[in-house]
Amino acid sequence: MGDAIRDPHIQPMRQQFVEGASPAFASILETINAVASRQCSMIISGETGAGKEMVARRIHNCSDRADKVFVPVDCTTLTGQLFESQLFGHVKGAFTGAVSETLGFFRAANSGTIFLDEISEIPLDLQAKLLRVLQESRVTPLGSVKSYPIDVRVLCATNRDLKQMVNENKFRADLYYRINVVTVYVPPLRERPEDILVLAEYFLTRQSELYNEPYKFLSDEVKKLLVNYSWPGNVRELANVMERAYVLTNSEMIKAASLPTEILVAVPVERGQHRLPTLDEAQRNVILQALNASGGRKMAAAKILGLERRKLNRLLGKYNISLPENTDS
Fold first, then answer.
1. Which residue from 103, 222, 234, 308 has the fewest beta carbons nearer than 10 Å?
2. More reliable by pLDDT, 225 or 13
3. What is the mean pLDDT of residues 171-175?
4. H/E element, 309
């Protein structure tokens, strides 16, 4: 059915659940538990990458539709004729290239849940068509006069302020009030540092399951770096960083050299604000950055830093920096 849909069956079952230990996460779980068994529409708001789809999957899996299909749809790709065709389906010959009939996402999600990701990106002139379907619980395929009843739980997500968009006439008020029965806000990862290591270990577990290998552990140094980082890409960035660290680590312990440069040189976050690093912190971070750029090879790192290798060895000892076992000594 095109690029707008992401196959709900290609991901491991563990990815469908949310992990966390923060008060914000506990509040999200309370809301999920309260509304999962209901049929009401919901808006899940938060920054890009914050984990909105994971929350939607959790809601679905805690509902009485858990054994039915979960259909995620990327609304940023739905424009013009493609909007109606992909959401509502079309009949053969409805337009040039329509060589066969398609169900559309709503009929494909019948008896299950449809997740409209970034619903704010649907053009204003097409929002009325979506509203009609939500109100009548019926869809009419493009090119057809026959409508079909649907039984679908609708979950929506956005990284924008829909209420503000309504005030600016960029989002239909009637559609907003139709979908905004309950709102769940997913805070960015930087506002819930208690969740960082829980999620990091969760993503490492997924990697070990994927490769059928023993679990890999985070060193204390890596844990500190992860917690101090501000995570502008949120949960999605953390998942990618953990995948990178896993595949670059040959031992059971993940060390700082396996992390991306931007994490190694990041300024620690204190009380929600950045502070300047101490001289030792800055020097240690620059050494880690050089080791990361050189793949952990000390001779190459020493050349990058303009140091003799003996001087670099002394600094490695001073700052307690260890290297992966498979690098040069």
1. 308
2. 225
3. 97
4. helix 309-318
